[in-house]
Each structure stands twice: as C-alpha cells, then as structure tokens.
Amino acid sequence: MEKKITVLPGDGIGPEVVASAVRVLQVIGKRFNHTFHLGYATIGGAAIDQHNNPLPDETIDMCENSDAILLGAVGGPKWDQNPPELRPEKGLLRIRKHFDLFANLRPVKAFPSLLDASPLKREVAENVDLMIVRELTGGVYFGEPRMRTENGAIDTTVYSKAEVERIVENAFELARLRGGKLCSVDKANVLETSRLWREVVEEKKKDYPDVRVEHNLVDSVAMKLITNPGHYDVVVTENMFGDILSDEASVITGSLGVLPSASIRGDNFGLYEPVHGSAPEIAGQGVANPAATILSVAMMLQYSFGLKEEAAEIERAVSAVFDDGYFTADLARDGGRTLSTNEWTDKVINEIDTSF
Ligand code: NAI
Ligand code: MG
C-alpha cells in the first residue's frame, strides 16, 4: 500500500514525539511492505513565526493532497499574549473545521504495567478498554445566537438531524468493529437536541441489529465512568458532553502521555494527534513520552488505511516495552528503567522489527 501523510510537528515537544512516531511508522512500512510518503508543514506557533498565520494556505494545500494528517501539539508561552487570530490553537480549530472532521475518537485503554499510575483502584481500572466518540463540529460551541444581552448572556445548542445521523452512524460502525456495545449519552429529560439525538439512535439501531444499545443521561455517565469504567465500550455523545467526558475518561489510565486521538469524517481521511499539549517546560530535553503519538499512528493505520494488523502490532509493541519495565521520565517508577524519548522509541522499534 502507498499513502501520503502530511506531518505537522507543531510546537514544544510536538516535533520530538512526532519524530518518534514517524520512525515507528517507517519501520511498520518496512515490515509490512507499505510506502508512506511524508510531507512536512507548519501549524500553530511555528506557523505564526514563519508565516504570521497559525494555519497557512500551503499547509492546507498539502493536507488536501494527503490521505491523513499526523499532528504533534501546538502552543506555548511565546504566543500566549498574541491576539485571538494569531493564537496557535486557532490553527487547530481551523484545520478541524476546514476538513469537516466531525468525529473525535478518544480511546482509553489500561496498560497493565501502568495501573499504579491510575487514581482508581487497580480492580476498577484494569479492564478498561473504551472509546469516546465526541461530535466535534456542532452543538453549543458553534450555535447562534451567541451574545451578551442587557442583563445576561446567550449560548445556543443547535443540531441538525443530518449532523446527528452522521456521528451516530460512525459510532455504530465502530461499535460493530469493537465489542458490539454502544452507550449513547444525552440529557433527553431536559434538552430538545437530546430528544432528537435519542430518536436518531433509535432509528439507526434498526440497521445494526448486532449492536446492543443503551441510552444514558450525561450526569449518570459522569459517575459511572469512574465507578465502573469497565462497563463501557463505545460511548457516543454531543460536543460539550463529549469534551467533558473525554477529559474525565482520560484520567482513568493515569497517564496523559499514552492517550492517542483521531478526528475523522465519513471517508477515510483523518487527523491523528496525541491528547496532550506541547508541554513547553520539558521541550527540547529529549524526555517527552512519545507513546501517545506512536499510538495515534496506530489509529491512523487502522481508521484511515484499514491496516488493522499493523495497528495492533504497534499497540502490542508499546505494551510490551512497558511490560519489560522501560518508561520515560513522566512514568518513572520503582523497578523500572527511565529512558529518553529516543531510547524508549528504539525499544518499540526493536520490538516490532527483530531483524535489526
Ligand atoms: P500539556 O498536555 O502540554 O501538559 C500537561 C502536563 O503533562 C505537563 O506537566 C507536561 O509536562 C505533561 N506532559 C504532557 N505531555 C507529555 C508527554 N508526552 N510526556 C511527558 N509529559 C507530558 O498541557 P498544558 O501544560 O496545559 O499546556 C501546555 C501548552 O500546550 C499550552 O500552550 C496549551 O495551550 C497547549 N495545548 C495544546 C494542545 C494541542 O495541541 N492539542 C492540547 C492541550 C494543550
Ligand atoms: Mg477539553
């Protein structure tokens, strides 16, 4: 298989963790006989410095001509005082919107060797393997009117039926590929958009007789996600609920450094990035944990290229390196060895390709 990937290293530790992920991608290509053509472009602070624009046209053009995007992270103190249009995160919002990446996938999977990093009891966290599917381009973050009034303020939650249908369909497809279980989260006892959401799920359910569906209210899920996270497989919800629940779910495994994400749309195109930010205080030291970005590459292989075996091999290798007792500084623990970003990446690569 031959694929074109646009690489956007970004700021802070972004370039370091992306370099690691690209090395792993190349080794997977070699082992499974795929060719990945990489093109590099700028986004965020790096793009502001070079082009006075957090998402330059040439970056968009390169992405348009690619099969997928790999992104590090953006932002840092250098740009914190910039006006809104020249803020690094503007580049992120614009790229998601430009490519209509309406489905944000955030898997949360416990690594057995990292369980002591979780704030939850071992027996609660150990079987967690869930995926939050968050609607990313609609809802209250984009709804109009949005304004200050004489004595208050207004935000508006808007969803068209088509917007709900496409994200729900996406979640059903994922549930079918995973455990066959879908939890739809809403606030249908209060919100009209939630009643629409629930109706759409009920309608779509007929096309997926192999998927078991439950409807849950968001406040109840907020509790159950930490008391019984093992209950969940695929969780689908609207933008704001998903924003909050996905951050809540991300603490289950206890390590920001191992959480990947994908932002996709109906076709195979997608943007893949770690959940964490640019960690400016450790940038340039070679100590960042590259696991989240490496696992984001695994998501790219699976969701954009349909390469399931290759994706599983990356996940296996990452898990095996943890099991062997190798960690980056953020996960340093008794009995383990602390490696630099590059040394830890070497371990993953050796795990994948034993012919070196
Ligand atoms: P952050 O995720 O960058 O860092 C939070 C904490 O986790 C820090 O202590 C950091 O050192 C640590 N950390 C994060 N990733 C790590 C890794 N791979 N290895 C080792 N340690 C890691 O979030 P923070 O500090 O709130 O934001 C820093 C900058 O990143 C800000 O400019 C923020 O705007 C930006 N940011 C960008 C995001 C993105 O590009 N998607 C997401 C979140 C924040
Ligand atoms: Mg958030």
UniProtKB/TrEMBL annotation:
Compartments reported by the entry: Cytoplasm
Pathway: Amino-acid biosynthesis; L-leucine biosynthesis; L-leucine from 3-methyl-2-oxobutanoate: step 3/4
Chain sites annotated for binding NAD(+): 76-89
Cofactor: binding comment: Binds 1 Mg(2+) or Mn(2+) ion per subunit.
Enzyme Commission no: 1.1.1.85
Enzyme class: oxidoreductase
GO MF term set: 3-isopropylmalate dehydrogenase activity; magnesium ion binding; NAD binding
UniProt-annotated site: Important for catalysis, residues: 141, 187
Pfam families from the UniProt entry: Iso_dh (PF00180)
Cofactor entry: Mg(2+); Mn(2+)
One of the protein's GO biological processes: L-leucine biosynthetic process
Catalytic reaction annotation: (2R,3S)-3-isopropylmalate + NAD(+) = 4-methyl-2-oxopentanoate + CO2 + NADH
Isopropylmalate dehydrogenase-like domain residues: 4-348
InterPro entries per the UniProt record, alphabetical: IsoCit/isopropylmalate_DH_CS, IsoPropMal-DH-like_dom, Isopropylmalate_DH
GO CC terms: cytosol
Alphabetically ordered keywords of this record: Amino-acid biosynthesis, Branched-chain amino acid biosynthesis, Cytoplasm, Leucine biosynthesis, Magnesium, Manganese, Metal-binding, NAD, Oxidoreductase
Binding site for substrate: 96, 106, 134, 219
Residues bound to Mg(2+): 219, 243, 247
NCBIfam families in the record: leuB
HAMAP family xref list: LeuB_type1
Quaternary structure and partners: Homodimer.
General function of this protein: Catalyzes the oxidation of 3-carboxy-2-hydroxy-4-methylpentanoate (3-isopropylmalate) to 3-carboxy-4-methyl-2-oxopentanoate. The product decarboxylates to 4-methyl-2 oxopentanoate.
Family of this protein: Belongs to the isocitrate and isopropylmalate dehydrogenases family. LeuB type 1 subfamily.
Name of the protein this chain belongs to: 3-isopropylmalate dehydrogenase
Organism of provenance: Lysinibacillus macroides
Gene this chain is encoded by: leuB
